[in-house]
Design goal:
globular, six-stranded parallel sheet, three-stranded antiparallel sheet, alpha/beta, binds 6-phosphogluconic acid
């Protein structure tokens, strides 16, 4: 499907929020995996400020596609970012929030979270299926916390793995391709000129694009949509 290209980050937030409200309207319950980093902040702010009437958060379960191995109060925490920009501003039951425990032992937590997903998510062909996985893409073409230097983690048989940030060495917990490509829908939210080259290579299938984990996102459902701002879409020919 052609990417959704917005003029600005703010417009992308509005476009994605409208897409999400439409996706959820027909569902009794929805299980959504959130991405981290900075891009989601403007989207979460938009959802919290302008879509409270359009989305019944009481029927939504929130999970994370990845988390930094830090406490939930740490500025690096994806959970903390989501609380600050979304959860603290909407009415969603505590029991619907399924955070990755960044403060726990990484290996133990990867196992625990995989078990939680197995228990909580609806199954399709016996495999846990998210209704929606929201992803970002790093400047290096990583997605969730699957980085190019560990791209093999994408193909893990495990649903959650421990990853390591290539520069900082920070440990991360990440869901793997087994869950991402099994999702009913996947939405990439990518903004900024610094992403344009990789976006162009991946969407244009140019050069050695398959070395980027983000290029491996192909949900079997066919439900993949890229939300880009104009700056990130510059590399598309
Ligand atoms: C994380 C993310 C990661 C993020 C990309 C893009 O924990 O950092 O889940 O995959 O989506 O790095 O991050 P920005 O939105 O900050 O560019």
């Amino acid at each position: 499907m052609k990417p959704n290209i917005s003029n600005t980050k703010q417009e992308l937030a509005q476009d994605f929020s409208g897409y999400l409200a439409t996706l959820l309207a027909s569902k009794e319950t929805a299980h959504i995996a959130l991405s981290g980093g900075s891009t989601p902040k403007v989207v979460f702010d938009e959802l919290a400020e302008n879509f409270t009437e359009d989305i019944d958060w009481g029927k939504i379960h929130l999970y994370w596609g990845d988390e930094r191995c830090v406490p939930p109060t740490n500025a690096d925490s994806n959970y903390k970012m989501t609380v600050d920009h979304l959860i603290s501003k909407i009415s969603i039951p505590d029991e619907n929030i399924h955070r990755i425990r960044g403060e726990a032992d990484p290996r133990d937590e990867a196992e625990r979270y995989a078990g939680l997903l197995q228990a909580k998510l609806p199954k399709k062909n016996g495999v846990p299926q998210f209704d929606l996985v929201i992803l970002g893409m790093g400047d290096d073409g990583h997605t969730a916390s699957i980085f190019p230097h560990e791209i093999g983690l994408w193909h893990s048989k495990k649903h959650c793995e421990v990853a390591v940030h290539p520069d900082s060495g920070q440990k991360r917990i990440s869901i793997t391709g087994s869950l991402i490509n099994h999702a009913a829908a996947v939405a990439f939210l990518v903004t900024g000129e610094n992403k344009a080259e990789k976006v162009g290579e991946i969407l244009g299938k140019r050069g050695n694009y398959q070395k980027y984990p983000a290029s491996l996102v192909h949900p079997k459902s066919g439900g993949l949509l890229w939300f880009l701002d104009k700056a990130a879409a510059q590399g598309i020919v």
